[in-house]
Amino acid sequence: MKDFIFNMPTKVVFASGAVNGIGQVCRSLGGTKAFLVTGRTSTKNSPYFGQIVKSLNEAGVAVHTYAEIEADPSVETIDRGASVMKSANADVVIAFGGGSPTDAAKAMAMLQENEGSILDYMRGRRKIASAGLPLICIPTTAGSGSEVTAAAVVTDRDSKEKIGISHESMTPRVAIVDPMLHVSMPSAVTASTGIDALTHAIEAYIAVESHPLSDASCLHAIRLIGGYLRRAVANGNDIEARGKMALASLMAGIGFNHAGLGAVHGIAHPVGAQFGIAHGVANGIMLPYVMEYCAMADYAKFRDIAVALGEDISGMNERDAAKQAVIAVMALKQDIGIPETLSALGVPPTAVDTIVKDAITYRRLPNSPRQLKIEDLTIIVERALGIKIV
Ligand SMILES: [Fe+2]
Fold this sequence. Notes:
The chain is an alpha/beta fold. It has helices at residues 22-28, 42-45, 47-58, 75-88, 99-110, 118-122, 187-205, 212-234, 239-259, 263-275, 279-294, 299-308, 318-336, 352-359, 374-384, and strands spanning 11-14, 33-39, 62-69, 92-97, 135-139, 151-156, 161-166, 174-177.
């Protein structure tokens, strides 16, 4: 049996209508001046945005809205936001939106009590020494799991790199998960964020650092995504599917916050940063290629994934049962409209070296069950480009 530590400091409030309790949640953390971080367009226009502000005002909490976060938030956006947050003299931070506003809010809250630019922390020039402002997250997508993780991913647009920073003190204090907020999510966003959640669950389940509690969380997340992602994409008003996907994203987040990610994210980050491909889509494209390459490291876990995704593996040997997990992911991708190859989104064959050069530096690459060197990553990326037939 593996030794492990399990620490889940985020209080989770999971309920339809939970968003209306944000004012009291803020007060319970001692907040009187909230800095509300959200995206530039869609989330601000959501009817729930008004409900959040109303609940805060009714609880006597002043609100400063910062609706300036773009997809894949940049160093500049976060530094600027951190400076505005300081001027606002906020005592609590609220993130309302998908993974991008959540990660941005996390980084900005940290910078309230730690000097310098976010770039200093991304480059390792400074270390996080103090806990930032308390953070409450209200996810509007079912994918990033960022509402329960210690990490934030920031894009350096100059070097075209996406870099994660992580510290236990950055973990949100409260996550308010309200599936009703996900109903208006367009089906393409449901698909890309949902496949991101599946990637988190699978990468953390097969990770070197996985342990029994992260496994339980990840495997159930895989089961839920296998059962409900197609339904959520097919009909956004399917409340049961929305609820199960919200739960799956949360459980995958808890899983990967403990077990860590691996090569899929390691490759998806440069793909996203260099070619502007959405995080979930980049992960969704890479996931089966990485799975197929890594399966022989742990057939038993891949067999579990196949079963969790609803595959009938009876009578199969362990190798074939493991491969069935890859086939199931391919089928799910196809059904929800995630492209099969990077080439389909315009990534040229000449990009292999620049993608691999960045991916090999990914901090969690050794967490992949099969230990991957440059030659291995090259084969995987070539396959994902359709250069070599799997
Ligand atoms: Fe992700």
